[in-house]
Write a structure and sequence with these properties.
This protein is α/β, with parallel strands linked by helices and 250 residues long. Helix content is 34%, strand content 26%. GO terms for molecular function: ATP binding.
Length: 250
């Protein structure tokens, strides 16, 4: 699942995006290299989800370009984006509650390469043994943590090069949150790049390679994750209290 190009796996230049006539993002630049975990931070309403939606073809792009694995995917429909190797695990999980675990995986399967459904399903079951145990159970009868695992498993059925995760720790118990982050690291080590939107700043920066912080739809701070974690302006920028200036690079 490595990139076929020598440049960044994902490159965003001057992105503006929103919904209908409402603009949310302005002049966003972002890069993600193959094998990296890139973290996007920001308070509620900063534009993090809109960024992922713009990449995956859900939000309207009004300016700029999105290039993935050397190809321009700006404005492509979501199904076309998925077939290029980019999977989106949205906020709120959005699994099919009335379907079983197995049926959810069947519904999410996208044939992109030589590996078929059974092989991809076994990868998911190896990563999440509880899903194999509960493969015939309706998703609605699973715990929040198990549903989040199923949501990630569904995304992996597209055999992605890049997995985008939107708030995977939302509403979960601390023990389950740490388990989810351990899985994110395992995915990265297996060759799947990750673009992670997350409210848990400490854990996100601990597992991330690079980080971007959004405020009011603009990137305010970006750099290596560990340097961002130590940046004196992080809390002020995260809370949106700092004056709006140019992006700070560290």
């Amino acid at each position: 699942m490595t990139s076929t190009t020598s440049g960044p796996l994902l490159r965003i230049d001057g992105l503006g995006a929103g919904y209908g006539r409402v603009g949310i993002l302005s002049d966003i630049d972002l890069e993600l290299n193959a094998g990296e975990i890139v973290v996007v931070l920001g308070a509620n309403g900063a534009g993090k989800t809109t960024l992922l939606n713009a990449i995956s073809g859900v939000a309207r792009v009004s300016a700029g370009t999105i290039r993935f694995d050397g190809q321009d995917i700006t404005g492509l429909r979501p199904e076309a984006v998925v077939r290029r190797g980019l999977a989106h695990c949205p906020e709120g999980r959005q699994i099919f509650q009335r379907l079983t675990v197995e049926e959810n995986l069947v519904a999410a399967h996208v044939r992109r390469g030589p590996r078929g459904f059974e092989a991809l399903r076994e990868d998911v079951f190896t990563l999440f043994p509880i899903l194999k145990e509960r493969r015939n159970a309706p998703a609605s009868r699973m715990s929040g943590g198990q549903q989040q695992m199923l949501a990630i498993g569904r995304a992996l059925m597209a055999e992605p090069k890049l997995l985008m995760l939107d708030e995977p720790s939302l509403g979960l118990a601390p023990k389950v949150i740490h388990q989810i982050f351990r899985i994110i690291l395992d995915l990265s080590q297996s060759g799947i790049s990750v673009l992670l939107v997350e409210q848990n700043v400490q854990l996100a920066l601990e597992c991330g390679d690079h980080a971007y912080l959004l405020t009011a739809g603009r990137c305010r701070l970006e750099g290596p994750a560990q340097e961002i974690a130590a940046h004196s302006a992080l809390n002020e920028l995260y809370l949106g209290a700092a004056p709006l200036e140019d992006t700070l690079h560290v």
